[in-house]
Amino acid sequence: MSAPGLTAHRLGPASQVPVGEGRGFSVEGRQIAVFRLRDSSLRALDATCPHAGGPLADGQLDARKVVCPLHMRAYSFADGSCPEGPGVAVHPVREEAGELVVEL
Q1: Nearest Cα to Cα of residue 68 among 89, 90, 44, 52
Q2: Which residue intervals define the domain Rieske in the entry (predicted)?
Q3: Which of 27, 52, 58, 102 is deepest in the core (most CB within 10 A)?
């Protein structure tokens, strides 16, 4: 069930995002990066680094953040913040019946 004001979008099989990696998706004309953390939990952020346009889905991640592969800026999974500059939006994401579902 979606939160008020948000629309759920099915992205396909959850197996598309292996543990410890991210993948990019186009949703309603926006680029969204979905990550599966080492504990198998899911996180989703806007996929483009506002600093230099880097693909966040290709970044290195840990339990708290993803690091842009271009200039090493880190973005928090909790709130999208970046200590060095503008942050990115965070989106609710879940696995439902074997599929990834993100809310925008």
Answers
A1: 52
A2: 9-102
A3: 102
Contact 88, 31 (CB under 8 A): no
pLDDT in the model for residue 5: 85
Domains of the chain by range and CATH? 17-97 (2.102.10.10)
What the block records as the tokens of 87 is 């942050």
Q: What's the pLDDT score for residue 1? A: 64
Three-class SS of residue 77? coil
User: What residues of the chain score a pLDDT lower than 50?
Assistant: none
Using a 10 angstrom Cβ sphere, with 0-12 exposed, 13-18 middle and 19 or more buried, the burial of residue 17 is: buried
Instruction: Identify any residues that bridge with 76 across adjacent strands, giving them in sequence order.
Output: 65
Write the pLDDT tens digit of every residue in 27-47: 999 999 999 999 999 999 999
Beta-ladder partners of 94: 101
| The overall pTM is greater than 0.90 | yes
- Reduced to 3 states (helix: H, G, I; strand: E, B; else coil), residue 52 is coil
Q: How far apart are CA 19 and CA 5, in angstroms?
A: 30
